[in-house]
Fold each of these.
Amino acid sequence: MPPSQRPPVSLVAPAVVVALVAIAPVIYLVDRAASSGWNVAWREIAQQRTIDLVARSLTITVMATILCVVVGVCAAVLVTRTDLRGAKIWRVILALPLAVPTYLAAYAWVSARPSLAGIDGATLVLVACCYPYVFLPVCAALQRIDRASEEVARASGRSGLSVIWHITLPQVRTAVASGALLVALYVLSDFGAVGTMRFESFTWVIFGAYNAGFNPSRAAVLSLVLVAIALGVTLAEMRARGRSSYRLGAGASRSGFAFRLGRKQIGATLFLTVVTAVAIGMPVGSLVKWLVRSTGQQTDWTDLRRAAFNSFTLALIAALVTLAVAIPAGVLAARHQSVTSRVVERATYVSHALPGIVIGIAVVHLGIRLLRPLYQRTPLLIAAYVVIFLPLAVGTVRAAFEQCPPRLEEVARSLGRTRRRALWQVAARLSAPGLAAGTALTFLAAMKELPATLLLHPTGTDTLATRLWTHTSVSDYSGAAPYAAALMLLAALPTAVLGWLSGRLVGDG
Amino acid sequence: MGSGLSIEGVHKRFGALQVLQGVDLNVEAATLTAVLGPSGCGKTTLLRIIAGFEQADDGRLVVDGTNIATLPPELRHVGVVPQEGALFPHLDVGRNVGFGIPKRGRSARVAECLELVGLAGFEAARPAELSGGQQQRVAVARALAPRPAVLLLDEPFAALDTNLRAQVRSDIADAVRASGTTTVLVTHDRDEALSLADHVAVMLHGRVLQVATPIDLYRHPVSSEVALFVGEAFLVPGYNDAGASSSPFGDVRVHGPVGDVLLVIRPEQVVLSSSGTFATITGVSYFGHDCLVEMVLADGSTVATRVAGHRSPAVGSTVHVLIDGVVSSVVR
Amino acid sequence: MAALPALVMICACASGGDATSSTTAAPTTAAPTTTQPIKPSGSITIYSGRSESLVKALYEQFTADTGITVSARYGDSGALAAQILTEGKASPADVFFAQDAGALGAVAKAKLFSSLPASQLDKVAKTYRSADGMWTGVSGRVRVVLIDPAQVATPPATIDEVLDAKWKGKVGFAPSNASWQSFVTALRVTRGDAAAAEWLKRFAANTPKAYQGNGAVRDGVNAGEVALGLVNHYYLYEKIAKEGADKVTARNAFMTPGDVGGLVNVAGVGIMTSGRNRGAALAFSEYLLSDKAQKFFAEKTFEYPLVGGGAPAVGLPSLADLKPPTIDLSDLDSIAITQELLSKAGLLTK
């Protein structure tokens, strides 16, 4: 019987507060859009150009999401369910594209192949940078499901492919859906790829409304359309997720047998090699080229070190705070399914579809009015990161706690622990790998973030991303190279941890 | 220890579904009471309410003269052994068992409890390394370690292999008894309930219908429903006139309500004999040590009995049957 | 000849870090200072749309010369304007130093600038500052056609000659570059939207090659990938400074006087009403208009000084000779409409 108890106020209250903070940018946008009059706003929305934009954004979102799902799921099946050679190493390598900012990847591609500019190139870059959002949760989920059903199906004479399609994949539907949600929201919000590839999506026009039109009201109206699309996407994900179920068994899953690839071994390796070449080889190759060219210039190591330190510290604080803030909402969603928990969880997702500059401007607006002493200081920047990256953490917290049977907490309570202590001593410990993964994901994303950082960073506190921008904004790619390299190297560490964690089981110690 | 548990008028509703409609049950101190019922009867809900995982809509739970119904689980001193044990997979056996007890004297108490369940020296083992039966024993040790006032066992043997179950079951019952803890065992398995418990409470449709010792319950059920639930039986109409009734088997001795009644005839009371009512054998299921014999009586009613394997009759043959002992009657 | 500025520039690029690090790019040819001893002190916050690698050395020199400390927040001029518009009267900025007139115009329109003193405004020709005195241009850049001499015997003299069929597939441009979009805006302002659309249509029909930025256009012309490139004048000199004159074959072709293709864009400065140190802010704008700063722009960024008497870098024709088209720069703030036009012509995005 599922725990149907009404969630305690000590959980609901912080979760609701967090949800309110998360949708604060949307509230600002509504206010801003209304300030120009609803007639103006409506005219903006109803015009043909806006409708075209919706179509364009939906097209690239759907395309990139589907491709990410295909690449992510195939890769996950290959490394967890087959006798692929070097599967453990592949698992780490395949997570690495998360360390590559889309603006870098896009620049690398479009300079090498200018004809890629447009939707093709933007899609290519977004898929290359985002498929790990699907790959990682699906890997983890594949690791967890009960192998018995696969074995039964195999014994009943189904081919390996048929078993994976009909038996294995339906069981990881939730993971696929939540990964796809993150991809879709990211694609909607991304400017790095569409900006560089010159694909006119919503974010392109929103950036234009700020940067060229000096028209924040128009930007707000367009952003609200994006919010509406995001709501649609999250609802679609709820549909696709179906009923989540998790293993109740207390013991570890047996490691199941692997599907033999046989002659397909070469094909599989080739597929993963191509994915890696596109997603990592290309940007790293360009980076090396710039680095070689920059050998004539002298690198300011002190500045590089300082920027790396700032990036690391800010991203770490952002990741930890986001995790802490995400726990109430994530636990609520995992343990107390109700209208409230659903609304709270979805509220944290909506802002993720907004481009960084929109969140940044919203935080500027609210910060300067409500938190003047903190304006352009670290806490407010962290707050912006929290709002932007909350869904990454809420999603992983939710998944981690769903895997931890509530029975265990009940037993702990009957052994004299309060609700909070039981949650901490049992569920949180068991969810540690999942929580660590969420932290790593947020850390990575925060380190790559640029538009909001430029608006809100404390004066004089430069990060690798802002230093990178300093140079690329004047087309000084050689000068940018050391910062780009440092950024990708620093980001590669937590990414490797992510790949490694995706192979760990709940309760493995 | 030394305190009983009194459940008084507990109600619980989930939405439109009234799961518990006034449960009353008195569990004597230091005894083991089994709550027996089919799935969906509300027995697990009752257990979760006693543990404090669910709140009752109404009713009292009295331990030692105190109503614990409003306390949070951690203050109730109620130990729980869930199905499949639910050991903390990230802690070794010693730390699982020691989870609920203060640091001082912990290791000694852990050793003591592990010994009680027959797993002395298993402190360093990881839960994943244990068999299902061992995991259950650890779960019991863990629940007993803080010396709870009441111990709750939630179908703790359901997931075990048949050949393992009997052994684990009796070992655990012994351990629980040795600890002197007031225990409630929730189960749908009547053999388990009858063989382990001091008292059995039969629960159907959210109510406790009867509480009795296993023998009393089996011999003197309060209703046909209870009679059929605690064991196989044939119900035949009869008229209890001061301890005797006519029946298809002839006159039988009856214990229970008088007047128009249903007679509860257990298969083991039907014996093949050289005299008595005629019956025709319609089927035999052979099990080696015994066999189940189905037959039809002269008046058309069908009964079955068990006979020793080597006495297996042939299908179609005619035999005489008698009723051995007193049959119980229930209100028609 | 160009090696010296190049060296200085690289130093300026590489000296990152905070504002307290010592100046590494002291001008080697310091002009006699004509500014009066400046009384204001304290510190100012500059929202700098001009990039750090270009102007950081200048800010450090300002601090060294005046004792006023500078904390600079760098960003895209447009994004900074959006930030200022959002901050409103509470903005922590004292000064907005923007890359183009559009961003300054947007802030002026929101009434967030306080007017500059006439003594400063009078230094700059009216064409290069706002009519109401809310901001002034500081340095200028001229739109040119960069040519590959190997392919081009007679360079186009007007922007319409670029449309000639003989340049089909041989023109490079940077669709997302702000200066290009300013030029198209100027085209709209001078000829009307319909004529501008027609020009764009013909331009698009000539299948121009889109590059990632002006620097890429320049490199494309220099490598002979295209014959012509629509860029600002200084990209050529940057490359010469960096790689040496012998490595660069491309040449600037300036437009006929008055042709809209030779538009002058300005980088400019405005003083925020929200500023808490108006004296120091005015000292900064004064400084930008001083001979020293003007010389800095001429020599380090190869831009045109806008204060009378300031000569451009060696080898550049003077603004007086170029006679750029007279366009009110405040009219160039309708870039959104320009982008729509570009988008319709298929020149903005793909």
Amino acid sequence: MDIFNVYLPIAGLKFNVLLLLLIGTTVGVCGGFFGIGGAWIVTPALNIFGFPMPYAIGTDLAHMGGKSIVSTMRHSKFGNVDVRLAVSMIIGTTVGMELGAKLVMYLEQLGMAESVIRKIYVVFLLAIGSYVLYDYLSHVRRQKISESKKEEKVTYGTTLAQRLQRINLPPMIEFKTSRIRCSLWLPVLVGLVTGVVASVLGVGGGFIRMPALIYLVGCPTLVAVGTDLFEVMITGAYGAFTYGVKGRVDLLAAMWMLIGAAIGAQLGTVAVKYVRGYAIRLLFAVTIFIACASVLMKQLELQLASSVLILTAGIVISLVIITLLVRGVIQERRAVKNGNNLSL
Amino acid sequence: MNSSKDKIPLRALLFRLGTLALVLALAAVWLLPVVAWAAGGGKPATKIFNVADTRAIEPGVSKWIADIYNSSLWLYGGLVVVMMAGMGFVLGYGMDRLVRLSGINLGKLDHHE
């Protein structure tokens, strides 16, 4: 195994290239499939294998920018990226992240940043995961009702996103890819709020933005995934530069991880073709609960166990996604042979 | 677009995947600490100064990166962004071509939920 060890001059340690490729591939698959950056996997994974924390964060952000380009290119060809919506949100996100940073500094002055932030993080993850799971279960129940009442027209109440879209606050703007028309202030405000939360929690924000795009703006799941990746690409590039200037990015490690991540991102992105939006939401909810468990373990000072859990979960979720992809490709080929199309 | 008779119920599929995931998770939970231990484990060291030790590095990409790091961090920050963006585009394009060669239909998707 020694032949796979390379010396990383910036972080100042020897590291196994195969591990970097494995971490990169894992986060690439999850990122391409869920539309997230994946800092929750990479940072603890690099850290347990010996990377000092600041270098783990910086190196993760650097590779995240490159990986998101790979995913965004593919999602864009699938028609899943709403550039106009992403740009509208970036305005709010940028302001929100600055406000969030100021809030963190204020909490630091009060000497309660760490404990407050961790608690908010747990509450947020639990709330998002529970809501996404509740939404999935409601969808399954609605489907059953629809199947049992084939002749009758089944109606459902308006969603929160539909209500928000109706607010007539100029300028009204049409997002063609998402097939929605709403006030420009809606995505800007959603970007602002998710920006504040992401900045306070010290995460990239994909975990929060992706569900916000679905439940507050009203995007289809696949467009939410693609559009969020576009934002991750921008924030990743910005993070790479700021951490690079501070000397906290190991470029060589980021390059190796990016090679793995490019393969993983392509697999994860193509997998969305074979999975319905609600199946993505269900897997996303499971992922959020695991991330939440990991944060709780950190709170209990079980640092190593928390990192092992998150890395293991990342690998398992990636394998599930790759299985869905392989299964979908086999079914598609079979269907083409039989002369019809299908998806999961 | 889809024929419903060929569909496997999502619940059955998720159950199968869940079983597979559980087996893999148990295997990984056992394997990962072993790998972590073999990789050196323990508390990571921290650097005090932003200087890369280039004495033991042979000329090549590592040395080039380390030299830029030691000469100017602003230049290094720029290099990180350019390298990551450049590699992202090249790898994205290359992987895209590879997936196309596999014969998967990569046209626009229906946004079905």
